[in-house]
Amino acid sequence: MKILDVGCGGGLLTEPGGSLFITTINKTQLSYALGIVFSEQIAGIVPKGTHTWEKFVSPETLESILESNGLSVQTVVGMLYNPFSGYWHWSENTSLNYAAHAVKSRVQEHPTSAEFVLKGETEELQANTCTNPAVHEELKK
């Protein structure tokens, strides 16, 4: 999971009050069954290998990561996809997909990168330091 601050040195995530919106897949048995087994292997809704179980993250883990990076989680809401209609719907159920809104609440000691060890797994979460020329080009548009 990467957290990208496209503002580069004055962006939303470096300023108190800046918002971050994330949509992702919860790490539950149900999300594994529907997100990988059903949607990839049975129904073929998405190509095989689209989802990686190890990258799924629970709302509690995401909240911990965000708070340790100076963000305060404001809202977590479930999202349900209807493959027959092709539409997404908001839901109170976060067991499959969910969205989170967090707000930058304090100055971060190291805003450009951080490494976390979570439950025996290592995940690197890096904020973009704007050394990537492609990011600069996107920002100019």
Automatic annotation (TrEMBL):
The family database entries (InterPro entries) matched by this protein are listed as: SAM-dependent_MTases_sf, UbiG_MeTrfase
Q: Does the keyword Protein transport apply?
A: no
Please give the Gene Ontology molecular function terms for this protein: 3-demethylubiquinol 3-O-methyltransferase activity; polyprenyldihydroxybenzoate methyltransferase activity
A single Gene Ontology biological process assigned to it is: methylation
Write the record's keywords in alphabetical order, separated by commas: Methyltransferase, S-adenosyl-L-methionine, Transferase, Ubiquinone biosynthesis
Q: Which domain of life is it from?
A: Eukaryota
Q: What is this protein called?
A: Coenzyme Q3, methyltransferase
Native species of this protein? Gorilla gorilla gorilla
Q: What is the lineage of its organism?
A: Eukaryota, Metazoa, Chordata, Craniata, Vertebrata
